[in-house]
Amino acid sequence: MAEVQIIYRDEPAVADAAVTFAEFTGGTNAAAVRIEPGEDVRALLPHLDQLRLVEVNFPAFGDGRGFSSAQILREAGYAGELRATGDVLVDQFVFLRRCGFDSFAPNKPLNVDDVKAAEGFFPDFYQKTSDGVAAIWAKRHPVAS
Fold first, then answer.
1. Exposed, middle or buried: residue 97 (CB in 10 Å: 0-12, 13-18, 19+)?
2. Would you say residue 69 lies in a domain?
3. Which of 33, 53, 89, 91 could form an SS bridge with 24, CB 3.0 to 4.6 Å?
4. From CA 84, how far away is CA 16, in angstroms rounded?
5. CA separation (Å) from 134 to 56, 98, 124, 140, 141?
6. What is the pLDDT of residues 93-110, one digit of tens each?
7. What is the mean pLDDT of residues 21-36?
8. Does 128 reside within a domain?
C-alpha cells in the first residue's frame, strides 16, 4: 500500500490495513476495505457504520469506475475516510475531491504545488456532487425554501 500523501480530514489518516472486498463481504469485522474496479460498492451500504476507511484503487488513470464508487458511498451517507490509491494524477485531483475522496495515496508522489494549483483551477461547476459546493446553476437560480 502506498503511503497517504494528502489528507483533507480533521483526524489523521486511518492506519488499519484494508481487507479485500471479497474478505469484507464474506463476513469480517474489519474497519477498512479496499475496492477494485468492477466491484459493486453497494454491497457495503448495510455496513457503512462499521467502516472507518474505504480505499478505492485506480490501477490506471483512465479507469474512472472509482469515481462512481465514491459518489455512491457519499450519497449513501458514508462519512469515514475515502482514500484514492494507485494511478492518481494531479489532473484528476479536483474531480476526485468533488466525488468525495478526502485522502490520497498515489503510487507516485504528487507535487504539492501542483495539487494546490489544481484545487483552485475551476471556480465553478455545472454538476452537483458530494463535496457540498453548489453547482453554478444552483447559484444562478436558488431554490426558494
1. buried
2. yes
3. 33
4. 15
5. 25, 11, 8, 10, 11
6. 888 888 899 999 999 888
7. 94
8. yes
* Residue 31 pLDDT greater than 90, yes or no: yes
Residue 1 lies inside a defined structural domain of this protein: no
pTM value is: 0.80
Place of cell 451500504: 45
How far apart CA 94 and CA 25 sit, in angstroms, is 30
Full residue range of the structural domain in which residue 134 is found: 6-140
Count of domains forming the chain: 1
Question: CB of 80 within 8 A of CB of 54?
Answer: yes
What pLDDT does residue 124 have? 56
Residue 50 buriedness (CB in 10 A; 0-12 / 13-18 / 19+): middle
